[in-house]
Design brief:
thiamine biosynthesis; binds the ligand Cc1ncc(COP(=O)(O)OP(=O)(O)O)c(N)n1; TIM Barrel; 8 strands; ThiamineP_synth_sf; eight-stranded parallel beta barrel; about 15% strand; Thiamine-phosphate synthase; binds magnesium ion; binds 4-methyl-5-hydroxyethylthiazole phosphate; alpha/beta; metal-binding
């Protein structure tokens, strides 16, 4: 069967792609060029990228689209998938490889329609407990973002800390979908998240806010190189 352009780009194994998942936008890069931060992080071992242009000072309109386009170019050059957070229209405009939406975002859309709209692209959905994870599976999610694993200063409206035990509870409850932990994850904290059953870790500040994003990403990718 002939694949669409998006499907052809993603014949790779999603569990492999989720290992070191960098999530960020310009507000997370400490005034540095996000493209340079992303490039360094990819060199360190980042396997998937989500453009999340959110928080104080986030770019809007054309500037936001232009930055997304530049970061998409970095990902294409490196051969890693590019996901857009929240903004369905931007994801379509940039021909992104996928979209990540949260529970609050999901409430705004017809779920069936959302899966159809991103047919052939990666659909990630956030889940905070096994019931939300089951609902995300029903919505046709390709992967889950489970969190917050630990305390985070990056997302002021994050739900209460769930801890790696939540991932173990999801796995024990029969959730076998590819899954990453997110929220306050450091290289030290990543081990418990992976041991609980995650395929990878999604990280904002510990990579994009690091003095050396390449070295930070390298530390996250170490458990996968053994
Ligand atoms: C991989 C991943 N997991 C969870 C989230 C959080 O999504 P959401 O709950 O919609 O919160 P915002 O990121 O939109 O503030 C994520 N972005 N990525
Ligand atoms: C987007 C998101 N969703 C749950 S916690 C969080 C923030 C993660 O950022 P950090 O890795 O800096 O704690
Ligand atoms: Mg969201």
């Amino acid at each position: 069967m002939t694949k669409t352009a998006a499907e052809a780009r993603y014949t790779g194994n999603l569990r492999e792609m989720l290992k070191v998942y960098l999530v960020m936008g310009s507000p997370n890069c400490g005034g540095r060029d996000p493209a340079a931060v992303l490039q360094a992080a990819i060199e360190g071992g980042v396997t998937l990228f989500q453009f999340r242009e959110k928080g104080p000072g986030a770019l809007q309109g054309q500037e936001r689209t232009e930055l997304g386009n530049r970061l998409l170019g970095v990902c294409r050059q490196a051969g890693i998938p590019f996901i857009v957070n929240d903004d369905l229209r931007l994801a379509e405009e940039l021909e992104a490889d996928g979209i990540h939406v949260g529970q609050e975002d999901l409430a705004q859309w017809d779920r069936e329609g959302l899966r159809q709209r991103f047919k052939g692209r990666i659909l990630g959905i956030s889940a905070h407990d096994p019931a939300e994870a089951r609902e995300a599976v029903r919505c046709g999610a390709d992967y889950l973002g489970a969190g917050p694993m630990y305390a985070t200063a990056t997302k002021p409206d994050a739900r209460a800390v769930q801890g790696p035990g939540m991932i173990a509870a999801m796995r024990a409850g029969g959730i076998s979908l590819p899954l990453v932990g997110i929220g306050g994850i450091t290289p030290e904290g990543a081990a418990s998240v992976l041991a609980a059953g995650a395929d990878g870790v999604a990280v904002i500040s510990a990579i994009s806010g690091a003095d050396d994003p390449r070295e930070a990403a390298r530390r996250f990718s170490r458990p996968f190189r053994r």
